[in-house]
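Continuing the batch. This is chain 6 of the set; chains 1 through 5 are on the previous pages. Same settings as before, nothing changed between runs. Recording input and output for traceability.
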Amino acid sequence: MAQPRASTDQENAPLLDNGNDGPSASSSSSPFKKMFSPSRPLSFFEKVLGALAVLLLLLMSIFVGLFAGAEGMLKKERQKTGKVEWKTEYRTHTRTATATKTSLATTTVSAVPTGKPEPKVCLTPECVTLSASIIQSLNTSVDPCDDFYEFATGGWAATHSIPADKGIYGAFNEVADNNKKIILRVLDAIPSGKPKKDASADELNLAKLKAVYTSCIDTDTLNEIGRKPLIALTDHVVELFGPFDLNPAPSSDLIEETQEWQGTYDETYRVSDHLLASGERATSLQKTKKSGHGPSDASDLETPTVDLAELDESSVGEDRQKKITKTLAWLHSRGVDALVNFAIEGDAGGEDSQVQSLWLYQASGGLPSKEYYEEAPILDLYQSVVSGILTDVAQHTSIRREKTKRGITHDIENLEGLDELEALIESIDDLVEEAAWPWPWPSDGDKDGEDSPGKDHDDTKDEPVEKRMEKLAGKVVKFERDLIRAGADPEYLFNPHYSYNPYPTEKVSKALPFLSIPAYLSSYAIRVFPANITVTYPPYLKSITRLIEETPDYVLSGYFVTRLALSYAGPLGPKTTIRQEHRRLQEVLRGIKRGTEENREDLCLSYVDDTVGYIAGREFVREAFSPEAKKEGEHIIRSIVKAFSDKLPHISWMDEESAKAAQKKAESLIPKVGYPLFPNTTHAESVQSWYSRLDVKTDDFFGTVFNSILLEESRTWMSLGRRRNRESWEMYPQTVNAYYSPPDGEIVFPAGILQPPFYSQAWPAHLRYGAFGAVAAHELTHAFDNTGSQYDDKGRLRDWWTQKTVKNFEERAQCLSKQYSKYYVLDEQGKKVYVNGNLTNGEDIGDSGLAQAFLAWKNSADTSDPERLPGLDFSEEQLFFLGFARVWAQLTRPATAVSRVRTDPHSPPYWRATGTLRNLDAFHKAFNCKSGSTMNPAKKDQCELW
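Output for chain 6:
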């Protein structure tokens, strides 16, 4: 920056005039001349007064000279550093005394500005807080052109740590934690007790919100209730389908195959990184199915062509078909995934992607992915857990049946005194240990025992229930393993192009002879019978039919009961046996230290979201989001879409036809910000109506969760055959996330992510665009990545680019893939584990949308009135990129980093920041990074797509 020129208002004339200048000098009557050349002799007193006057004049001249010198210095200082301001600082010490200090402060406003004026400084409380946050995040000892991530986030990393029960902690987690605190404050402010009869809609909503949380957090009551609510459900499954506990357990060749894994697990076992990777990948792909962010490395998969008529070769008895159909309909309507999995989704391959159609997926299991079913120690542990669950269910159901048989109900009604109660409890305990009666009991009218489950077995050869359930668990686990093996890999299953295989409903029904699809659908009281069913993996139909034909009913019953118990173990009390068995499995599968207590507060807040998420969302919006922020967020998104659309005709690798089609799609995208309008989160009555059928009791948390799932499933099935309500969302307002939905043509940003460090309406524009704008541009760019580009402007699965443009796109997408495949994380031994650039390609393309956010900001920014943050000597361009980088601040344990780099379709945060910026010329210019530096590699090593 050029130094300001010298001031023109300095005092150059001499302070004292010597009387030699000018024609009148000789004729002036000087007092000095009269004093030193008197016309008469002076008295002694006059001489003393004269001497004093001369002394005073000399002192005055000295002070005047000093003042003039100081004034000159001050003027020079103003030219260099600006005007001088005086202020008083108050510092409060640890004791009660308060010290007052006067200090000198300067600003950078020149007294006589020349050239371009200095930018103004934003001194609002929000800007000051933001500036302090950025300063604390920086590591200024690092050259930003060498390692911008460390420069932008190194300070943050130095002052944060990873919680003991987590593998990562970053800016996203900070935002989520802050959002939870807002919900907790709302919960604390809600009065306890039931609402009054004349309560408002808001009061009724808040009462439900409070009841869900308090009933979840009250573990004493949950433990006291125990397993009872789940036993009632397992009883119903047994009544629908038949018993799983046969006494004695029949022998079968099935059990022999379980010997291969029995005894292979011990407490020293740890799940390998490879297994963790496969599990997380399957979960991640399932979550991104709706958002269309399918795998980028599945292009070589071949669509299976199956003639369903060939599958109509086997038959299942009518009675067995009815049992299976009724049981599956009941389980599926309660959110329990078993045998097959039906889903209601938009018909992406049809003419109207908003019409909700029926899809058929393969079933999932109790383990995270297919790879887990090939790991002997895991299968051994899983069998142990299943055995523990089935034993607990069988024992306590048997007790209830035994009590009925012997008239225990009558005994309880006639109890007299504590002694009789203790004797009765002891007798029940004896029944449990002996397990003398087969379960379930035949009906009272079955005197010959023709319908007894033990009819074909010798009932005198009783086995302990634990032994029976151990054998059954082995058969259940083997059946589930065969079921999972029959399914497709997740790379196929969640790829939108290859999983779209519609067949007439009649043909699908014939290909599944064990299931009456018309009867199954009628149980949901659907209003439109589907003409087609989209089968995501047709070969699965033949495999599952064969498996069911080969599997005895009591094993299927054990499988159904296990799936139900694992699905509903969560809302049971933590000391309940079934809950403890589930937790024991999860600790190993997730790599949690054995015996680590769960964070009950986080768990209950998660259940709050799952059960009454829109009530919590309404309160969150009222506390932390404004209509003005919503309007501003929508403006930012639209400006980015416009910048992108305007740029499309000038992209060299797109031909004119494809560019016009891309513009049409960009302009058709629907931005949604803040909260949904179905239900309308801004209206208490709308939210109340949404949950009007959900009965919430403070002493029945399990029932609340159960009824909530039942309610959601009924809503989903009612949408079959109808057009989707465009005001509905896939996320709650408080969620820290965003998504693009290809079939719906929507980019969605909940209020939960429009929080610092992503967004504040009070921030300068460059920070809003650099952080939230980058998120908005990311989701926009997903509409044109290697998955989103398969959907046209109406959300239909179509080819809408020319072949030439597709080829050019793939070449540039592969450039990014190769570039990111050179990036890596370090494992616990410090060895490099490289990113799979094919896996992350779609998300890397999305991150490159930062260029559109920068362009949109430049198009909308008021460059005539720049604004900086206090204490930060950065330009607006530099602050834009700092705002982008700091949202990726994250600490990761090495094991977690390795697991994620193998599974997560997103690149590690370090590379999401630095990889994106290395390809962006605007960043290189902003920080003056020389060509060949780390952050500005040679042009041949850079990639540009959009």
